[in-house]
Amino acid sequence: MNPEFWHERWQTRQIGFHQDEINPYLVRYWPELQLDSAGRVLVPLCGKSRDMIWLLDQGFSVVGIEISPIAVEAFFAENNMVPTISREPHCSRWTFDGLELLCADFFDLDRNDIGEIAAVYDRAALIALPPETRPRYASHLAGLLGDATTGLLITLQYDQGEMSGPPFTVSDTEVQQLLGARYDIECLCTTDVLAANQRFREQGLTRLDEKAYRLTRP
What we know:
Strand order of the largest sheet: 3-4-5-2-1-6-7-9-8
Shape: globular
Largest sheet: 9 strands, mixed
Low-confidence stretches: none
Order of helices and strands: HHEHEHEEEHEHEHEHE
Radius of gyration: 16 Å
Helix content: 25-40%
CATH topology: Rossmann fold
CATH class: Alpha Beta
């Protein structure tokens, strides 16, 4: 899946992955991570997620990564923010108070672009990537995070034979294979959300589970 896929999705407004409401798992479980609110949170493949506003409201600084300039511009416009924009070798950096959105290909960035990170919040990154790309994502994410000690990961699980994705199903086993060398992984909840997702029922899914995981360094 190349970057043009996501550019086309935003250009044609095929953004069913976007949530207008704050993610309930973020609200429920983020406080349990017991982070210092002075820390910086990385949100990879962030789109125009309002979850970043919630994190800002809790006192955190936020660094989002998004490949689509349409998504980045929409985020600031919809939240009545006027950002400062700087052009850098690997990205354009859009900043407003404690928020930085890096408009770039995730894989083009390095730790110098990101800076020090205290935690990661992944709601829609891992499940957006096909199986062959996920190991590369996990490896690159580890390089960006440095000594980051914790995080919250949200995935989906369903019969991949019933729908091609994205979003893709990611099993417990794969989460462990991808992230287990770096983090202790605790499944916080498993919730059947098919009844609340008509578009997935229309695509033929017979079950759809959302899972939230806490990631902590050993």
